[in-house]
Design goal:
By secondary structure, the protein is an alpha+beta fold. Helix content is 26%, strand content 34%. The strands form 7 sheets. Strands 23, 24, 25, 26, 28, 31 and 32 form a 7-stranded antiparallel sheet that branches.
Length: 677
């Protein structure tokens, strides 16, 4: 819906709020809850991009490779690499983040924008608590927290634990992640044991390896031979009992290892599904002491498909078991080595599938994380020309090599892509699910919360302006989602076409939509895409509540820019910039009964920002609200216009002061900036 041009702000608001473009679940684009540095490739061929890491012997990314240095095959067949772009996320990104920090700190709260938003990585830390012994957990989790603290400011980090426990969705709030890590503990527990059967041995019992079984039973049950070989019937009974105990404990150890692995793999699957199918690279850092896959091809194949669909890379940080662990002290060195090999086999399988690497945490827990951080400091985006069969949505084996000696390539084993360019609706859905910000299309957005006249819900007016210099007359699609902290969706909107502005001289196009939601705290996610595939997205925290003041509930204060003359127009402001001769102000008050408005009045005040001095005032008479052709006698609208022509340019605050019988009972405020043209 494009901006209207009525003659008063009261009529503008009535029109905007009456036209509800979104109802709830059935509206359109689904969304759930990414954009690290991203390349844009243009070609007559629809290209496919793959992210790969190339590192030297010191775990440092190699930065000077060209497309000709790579060889890429799909299902064993060579594909032509069109370009290879190195994306650095350390030195240049750090400098950019520092430069942007003051601006970000001063960003106004009255609106949100993706202009100047720093690109960062998407990093998911997964703590496999079920595999980590309590004796080791504190140091390991503290080192993990320090790793998070050293990430770039623009990086978005999420934290999950397996089999259950703490979960923090993607955020740039390092303290929230670090604090959660420091509160975690390890849950690994082999349970009470009377015999000493290791994981590797337990798996051999499960496989029916007679030789290993007899060796373990002989070791655990001593030299008590069967009757007829120097033992008594009592001795035979003890042997049989001992054999039964060993077999039972072997079964328990194997079952526990399998259950723990299932829990970890299930957690990874759920996390990968949550990441969605966006082509933006994501990194999963799994902290785990071991994973018993034991040749389970079904589990590994399923994980490979999930990793490919999410465009994720998996790294593993493996804490080595402490020699002070009582269970480790009981086992012989050779047995400990076999157990560690079995536990590492599963972790190596995960990193092989995920295209990452495993780092062991031994004496200095920070050393492994430093090497990981070095690897993550840059990667290549390879764009290649696909065959028609590559875009069938199925899994395809992919292999990437480099022509230079002494380098290691980290890349996933599989990939999958759909047919051609996504539809606008699919693109919008992907952007709304993504935890990062797209910046190809710059835009700004603000919200105004009003009471829905027909229900206890909140009617949220979303106002945005999009810079369309690249294609001012082109088609553009828009999507909006309101999401609660736990991921529950409050409302969604998909608008397939927003017509171009009729004002040829306008620098930005304004559009409006309303959403009806339950009262609460939300994250508003908005996304746009134009006919050339340029994308924009942003997030904004939204407080969808009415404000209680005395006998009233008040909406947020809506302000708009106005000009004099017959062709006067009033449009709600988005950025807070006002350039006209008047500031138009609109507020709604709700009372439980019509008599509540007796003696009530509203006045408008304007003060310089940070000062209490009132420099302009104007009345805002209360009047009935005409909503969809009917008046609600429990609601009154206060609308007024404050002259600005005598004020100098600068920052100000508009206040709607509510009084009853001449006594102030509350006020609603909104900052604005007067811009002289």
């Amino acid at each position: 819906m494009n901006a209207r041009r009525p003659g008063s702000i009261g009529r503008v608001v009535a029109a905007l709020l009456a036209e509800v473009l979104l109802l709830t679940a059935g509206a359109a684009a689904q969304q759930q809850a990414g954009q690290p540095p991203r390349a844009t490739f243009t070609s007559s061929v629809d290209l496919v991009t793959v992210d790969v890491n190339v590192i030297d012997r010191d775990a440092r990314p190699v930065r000077d490779l060209q497309a000709a240095d790579f060889a890429l095959t799909v299902d064993g067949t060579i594909r032509k690499i069109v370009s290879a772009q190195f994306v650095s996320v350390t030195a240049p990104a750090a400098a950019a983040a520092e430069a942007a920090a003051p601006a970000a700190a001063a960003a106004p709260a009255e609106y949100s924008t993706n202009v100047g938003a720093a690109a960062g990585r998407l990093i998911v830390v997964v703590v496999d608590r079920g595999s980590i012994a309590p004796v080791r957990a504190k140091d390991v989790f503290a080192a993990t927290a320090r790793f998070v603290g050293r990430l770039q400011p623009a990086d978005r980090v999420a934290l999950y634990s397996a089999p259950s426990g703490t979960a923090v969705d993607f955020t740039t709030d390092r303290d929230a992640i670090m604090s959660a890590l420091q509160r975690m503990d390890g849950l690994a527990d082999n349970g009470p044991k009377t015999k000493n059967v290791g994981v590797a041995e337990a798996l051999q019992f499960e496989h029916g390896n007679t030789s290993t079984m007899e060796d373990v039973i002989s070791r655990e049950c001593g030299n008590q031979g069967p009757a007829g070989q120097g033992s008594t019937s009592g001795g035979l009974s003890e042997v049989m009992t001992c054999r039964a105990i060993v077999k039972e404990e072997a079964g328990t150890v194997a079952a526990y290892a399998h259950e723990r692995a299932r829990n970890t793999l299930l957690a990874l699957h759920n996390i990968l599904a949550r990441l969605g199918s966006s082509e933006i690279p994501k990194t999963i850092v799994l902290v785990s002491e071991g994973l018993v896959i034991d040749g389970d091809r079904v589990a590994t194949a399923s994980l490979a498909r999930a990793v490919a669909a999410a465009h994720a890379t998996i790294y593993v940080l493996k804490p080595e078991p402490s020699d002070s662990d009582a269970s480790q002290q009981r086992a012989a060195p050779q047995e400990r080595m076999r157990d560690r090999a079995v536990l590492e086999e599963g972790l190596n399988a995960v990193t092989r599938i995920g295209g990452g690497e495993m780092f062991r945490i031994i004496a200095d827990p920070d050393f492994a994380f430093v090497r990981l951080a070095s690897e993550l400091s840059g990667y290549y985006l390879l764009a290649f020309e696909p065959d028609s069969g590559d875009r069938d949505g199925k899994q395809h084996a992919i292999q990437v090599k480099v022509q230079r000696n002494g380098l290691s390539v980290r890349s996933r084993l599989e990939f999958s892509v759909g047919p051609g360019r996504k539809s606008d609706k699919d693109t919008i859905t992907e952007l709304l699910r993504s935890p990062s910000v797209a910046t190809d299309l710059p835009f700004r957005l603000t919200t105004y919360a009003f009471q829905d006249p027909d229900s206890p819900k909140i009617r949220l007016l979303c106002a945005m302006e999009v810079e369309r210099a690249a294609d001012p007359a082109g088609r553009m699609a828009m999507g909006i989602a309101l999401v609660k902290a736990g991921g529950e969706v409050g409302a969604t909107l998909y608008q397939p076409a927003i017509d171009a502005s009729t004002d040829a001289g306008a620098k930005a196009q304004r559009s409006f939509a309303t959403l009806v939601v339950d009262p609460g705290q939300y994250i508003l996610k908005a996304a746009i895409v134009d006919s050339d595939g340029r994308r924009g997205s942003l997030e904004r925290p939204v407080r969808a509540f009415m404000t209680r003041m005395s006998r009233f509930r008040a909406t947020e204060l809506l302000i708009g820019d106005g000009t004099k003359g017959e062709s006067a127009s009033v449009v709600p402001t988005i950025t807070g910039d006002v350039s006209g001769d008047q500031l138009h102000v609109y507020l709604e008050l709700f009372s439980d009964a019509p008599a509540g408005f007796d003696g009530a009045s509203v006045s408008i005040e304007v003060s310089p920002a940070g000062a209490a001095t009132v420099v302009e005032t104007a009345p805002a008479p209360l009047q009935p609200v005409d909503a969809a052709g009917k008046n609600d006698d429990r609601c009154r609208a206060a609308a007024g216009a404050v002259p600005l022509s005598l004020l100098p340019a600068g920052s100000y605050v508009a206040r709607a002061v509510v009084s009853v019988d001449g006594r102030k009972v509350g006020q609603m405020t909104r900052p604005f900036r007067l811009v002289k043209q």
